[in-house]
Amino acid sequence: MNAIPVKTGFALSSMCLLIVIQIATAQSVPPKTVRDYFLTVPEAYIGFSKEEREVLLKGPGIILDIKNGYLSYNASDNPEEFELALFKQTDGAYIVAISIDANPDIESKSALYLLRYDKGRWNDVTKETLTVSVNDQYIYTLPRMGTTIHVTTIKGKKLYDLIWVSNRFKIRK
Q: Distance (Å, rounded) from C-alpha 112 to C-alpha 163?
């Protein structure tokens, strides 16, 4: 009489374990495209929840260039704007650059984040990857094509370029 509950309990426990493993595997599948990275990057860096990002992808103001690893958002009805670009490292992994422009009209500051996704975790590698500090008063324009980030003042005066070389950004004036 005890054999049936034990087998049923074992079968249910095994099934639950299998479901947990499948869920964990599904969540740890590494992103492959700029769209995947955009949807998985932590909200703290992009300012939108995953659900909000899914809506943004379907609306106006989005440029999604899968081939070149580039995404930007700039809608006329929303002062929030940003760019996201992928930079390939020598080991085949990507650095995800996120640039958020300053907007003096709403007193927001610029931000540039460089992130790396590794085994299900996001790591901020900005300080290790840049040879200069990020300035929240500069505009960092990410490339849709190529590997150069253009850095200007808020008014558009060119300051310097950040060139992607050997897994780091180096300054070129």
A: 15
Token output for 112: 């540039």
| Cβ-contact 50, 130 below 8 angstroms | no
Give CB contacts under 8 A, 24+ apart, made by 101-108. 101/139, 102/136, 102/137, 102/138, 102/139, 102/154, 103/79, 104/154, 105/79, 106/79, 108/79
Nearest alpha-carbon partner for 30 in 93, 115, 86: 93
Amino acid at site 2: N
Over residues 153-158, mean pLDDT: 93
Structure tokens of 42?
Answer: 């932590």
Map out the domains of the chain as residue ranges: 29-172
Residues in the chain: 173
CA angle 168, 169, 171 (to 5 degrees): 140
The whole-model pTM stands at 0.81
- Is residue 154 a contact partner of residue 137, using CB atoms and an 8 Å limit? yes
* Spatial CB neighbours of 90, under 8 Å, sequence gap ≥ 6: 166, 167
pLDDT value at residue 79: 65
For 21, 56, 106, 133, 148, the CA distances from 48, given in Å and listed in that order, are 28, 9, 17, 25, 26
